[in-house]
Batch of 2 targets.
Target 1
Amino acid sequence: MIPFSILDLAPIVEGGTAADAFRNALDLAQHGEGWGYHRFWMAEHHSMPGVASAATAVALAHIGAGTSRIRIGAGGIMLPNHSPLVIAEQFGTLESLYPGRVDLGLGRAPGTDQAAAYALRRNLESDANRFPRDVVELMDYFKTAEPGQRVRAIPGEGLRIPVWILGSSLFGAQLAAMLGLPYAFASHFAPQQMMEAIHVYRSSFKPSEQLSRPYVMLGFNVFAADTDDEAQLLATSLMQAFVNLRTGTPTPLQPPKANYLEELAPAYRSTLDHVLSCSAIGSPVTVKREIREFVERTGADELMITSQIYDHQARLRSFEIAARLMGEQEPISLAS
C-alpha cells in the first residue's frame, strides 16, 4: 500500500490566465486533501507560457493558506538559480506558516532554456556543478545556529524541513544516496534511466538523521476518465505541449485534439511513446492495471501523479478516479 501525491504545474490553458491557473491549483489541492492525497507539490519552471508556478514558494503559500492537512512542497526548486540562503528563508517562512507540512525538493537543472537561465543567473559564476555543495549549505541553514555564526536563515534555522533530491539521471540518485535523503525521479517526462537510477540509489544509500532507509518517489502521468477513448483524447493536450516544447514553440496548454497522434510525424510519435512510457491513460480499469504494473516493476514507495489536462473539471475527475484506486490498492510485493 503506497501513498499517492499530486504534482501540479499550475497550467495556464489557452484562453486562460495565470490567475485562473492559481485558482484551479488551490481547488485541486483542496479536493486532493479531501481525497486522501499525501502531498501537493509545485515545480519551478521559467519562461514557459503554459506554466504559472515559476515563483514556487509564493504559489505554495497560496496553497498552504487554503488547505489544512496535505503536505505542500517543491518538486522542485532549481537550486542553481538561487542562493541557498534565500531558499532556506523562503521555505523556513513556509514551515513557520504551515508547521509540519512543508517539503523541499531540489534539482540542479535550470528549469528553462539557456536564454532564460542566463537571465536568472545568481551571478556571472553560477555553476550547476556546485549543486552538491549548495545542497549541503542549504541544509546547514536549517540546523541550530552555532555560537558566533554570522549568516543565519531566519526564519529557517532549527526547523525540521525534509529535503529531497530530484533527478532524471544517475547524478541525483548518487547524491541522494550519499546524503541519505529521499529521492524523486522525473519518470513522468524523462524515464530513460529510471530503473538504473533506482538501483544506484537503493544500493548506495547511507542512512542519515533525516532518513534511515531509501525512499523512492516516482513521477507518473495519469489521464483517467470514464472510457479509454475519452482519456486518450484528454492526453493529447500534454502531447501537444511536449511536441511544441521540443520544436521550440512552447504554448499555453492546448485543448484536446481528436486524431492528433494519427496526424503527427512518425518521429514525434516515437518521442511521445518514449517520454510518456510512465503513464496510465484510460478508464478506471485500465488505469488501475497500469498503475499496479508500474509499482510492481519499480518498487516505488510513493507515486507523484501529474495530469496536464486542459479542462479543469476533467482534471479533477482524473485525480478523483486515481484517488479511488489508491483506496482500492491491494498489498504489493515490492521489487528490491
Target 2
Amino acid sequence: MNKTAFLFPGQGSQQVGMGLALLERRPQLVDTYYREADQILGFPLSTLCWEGPDEALRDTSVTQPAVFLTSLATLDVLTAHGIEPDVVAGHSLGEYTALVCAGVLDWRDALRLVRRRGELMAAVNEQVPGGMAAVLGLDLAAVEEICAKVRSELGRVVEVANDNEPGQVVVSGTTVAVAEVMRESERCGARKAVSLKVGAPFHCSLMRGIEEEFATELADVEFRDPLVPVVSSVTAAPVTTAEEAVAALRRQLTGRVRWTGTVRRMERAGADTFVEVGPGRVLGGLCRRIAPDSTVYATDGASRLARTLDHFASTTTAA
C-alpha cells in the first residue's frame, strides 16, 4: 500500500544544537517560527535550543516547547520539499506536533499548551518527587505484575507509563517505588532497568491533580477535525474529530503511551515507510523492532536529513 507515516518525538529527544541543521537549509525558519515562539513564551527558547545549556533544556517546562518547536521546524523543511504524510502519530508530547501537522491545532496554540503542560507536570514533581525507568527484556504483563507487587508492598504509586516496544516497558511513579521496580525487574530476569532523566513522573496517576486545570487550558483553544489521519499514542486508535483530539490530550497526562499498538495500527493501515520528524532517533529504533519489514528515515542532523530528502526526491522522480 506504500503509505508514509510521520512520527513526532516526545520528551527525552532534546539536545543542545537541535534545529541548527534545519536553518542551514531554510534560514527563513528563524522568522517563521523561532522569533515568534520567543515572543509568545517570553524567553529565548531559540537560543536554548541552539546553544543550551543542557541543564536548562532538561527543565520540563523548557524541554517540551523546545522539542515541539524543533519538530515543527523539521516538518516545515519536509513539506517545503513536497514530502507529505499519509498518517501521523506522536509519542506523548509529540502528539501535539502531529495534530498541528494534521490541521487540528494552530502551532501557536500548541506551543502555549505544551509550555503550560510542562509547567504543570514540573509542579507535580515538586510536590511528590517521582521518576521513570525503562525495563528492558521483560514483557508488558511481567512488568505490570511487578508494579502491582511493589504497590502492594510499599503503598506507593508506580505504574506502567509506556509500552514502547515488545521488551521495552517504562514505569512511572514515586522515587522509592520506581527504584524498587528496577531492583525487582532485574531479579525477575530483566536484561537491565535504566533510570530515565526526566523532570517528572509522567503518564501515571500522580498527574491526576492537574487534569482539571489543563482541561481548562484545552477548552480555551480552537480544535478542528483532522485533515490527515491521526493515530493517538494514548489509545493506539484513530482520532477522527476535534472532540476526540481534546479528549486524547487530556487523557495523556495520566494515560499510558501505547506506542507498540500505535505503530502496529499504522502498519495495518498500510504504512510501510516511517519518518521520525524532529530531534533524536529513538522512535526510529522502536519502529524497526515493532515493524521490522518497514523502512525508517531520520531527520536528526544534517547528513540524516539530507539522506531522507534525497530518498523522497528520488521516489518522486521515479514516479
